Each structure stands twice: as structure tokens, then as C-alpha cells.
Amino acid sequence: MKWFKLILDVTIFILIAILLFVYTYKENEEILPDTKYPIAVTDWNKKYSKNEIYKRINQFAKNENVAIYKSTSNYTNKNVDKDIYVFNKSKATTITPFNAKYNIHYLSDDELLKKRYQRELFCKRQKF
């Protein structure tokens, strides 16, 4: 009976470890390294255009002296492609992904306007 309990405990421990590993691996696909403050945009009442909203975000980033990153992930053929746009490009730093297989593409202003608005924004700064 003790062997059965020991085998059951080890099996449950291994199962929990595998689930945690898979969860953190998938979570790393969504976030950007070294970003401490995610900003989630969940709704848009379309009172302002995308262009106006992006101008306000850019102005806010300049006023606060921070870089704000808009990140979208595309999953094609089991590969992760990240499209990144930087608000306040003067404060931008190089993004080094956790996984070297990720392809990072930096978006231009025109490409940004073609993307969906409701996504996460990330702020890179020590104190905010």
C-alpha cells in the first residue's frame, strides 16, 4: 500500500509539473520580455478613430518618457510570429524573445492601422 501511495504521489507531482511547464511556455508566447506593465484593451466604442487613439497613446508615451509596445502574435505552421509596434520610438529597446524560434516583425504606421485594435499593450519602465 505504501508503494501505491508513493507512485500516486510521484505521478501527481509529475503531472502538475508538466501542466505548469506547458502553461508558462504558452504564456511566454503572449508576453514581451522585460515588460512589467501590460495594458489590456478590451473594448472600443468607436467614438475615436484608430489613428486618433494611437496618436494619444504615442503622446502619452512621450509625456511619460516610456516606450509602449503593441504586440500581436500570429500562429502559422506551429511557429509564432510577433508583430510589434513601438509608441515613442526614441525610448525603444531591442526585444529579445525567450524562444529563439519566434520571428519578430516591427510594424510601420500604415501596417499598424490595418491591425485589430483590441490587443495588449506593454510598457517597459522601472517605475510607472
Count of distinct structural domains: 1
Radius of gyration from the alpha-carbon trace, in angstroms: 20 Å
Estimate the mean pLDDT confidence: 76
The biggest sheet, with number of strands, parallel, antiparallel or mixed sense and barrel status, is:
5 strands, mixed
**Which regions are unreliable across 5 or more consecutive residues at pLDDT < 50?**
none
Q: What structural class do the secondary elements suggest?
A: alpha+beta
Distance between the termini: 56 Å
The total count of helices amounts to 3
Number of extended strands: 5
Strand content is 25-35%
Strand order in the sheet with the most strands? 1-5-2-3-4
Pattern of helices and strands? HEHEEEHE
The level of helicity is 25-40%
**Tertiary shape:** elongated
